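Usage example:
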Amino acid sequence: MEVTYLCPHCIGAINALDNIILSAKTEKNKHGLILLHEEIWNYSVIQTSSINAELGEIVDFFCPVCHASLNTEKGDHYAGYIRMDASGQESKIVISREYGDRRTFKITGEDIESYGESARKYMYPEWFL
Ligand SMILES: [Zn+2]
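Running the assembly step on the lines above writes:
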């Protein structure tokens, strides 16, 4: 299935070869790229040696194309981008910005799906809608 992930600001595609490519900055002010698997339930992560984020560190995410912040304004420590599936249906993906925190939400219209073991600890935040 061909899936495209898009920056909500420039609508540039941010995925290639099964990975979502995000520009990132850690709390210790290290910059680099973090690659997330494009399958939402797959939490394998690749990061460049320049960033080397540690578990529990809060990471700022930026679009690799236009460099706009992908951090969400509401809520603590989330970032978001757009997912378009092969049929052209758009969803909003919200991820935790805490490195190693497996918490992902997929919002399609008013429907929220949650992924990752950490997601179960939280109520669905209605501000996603
Ligand atoms: Zn962008």
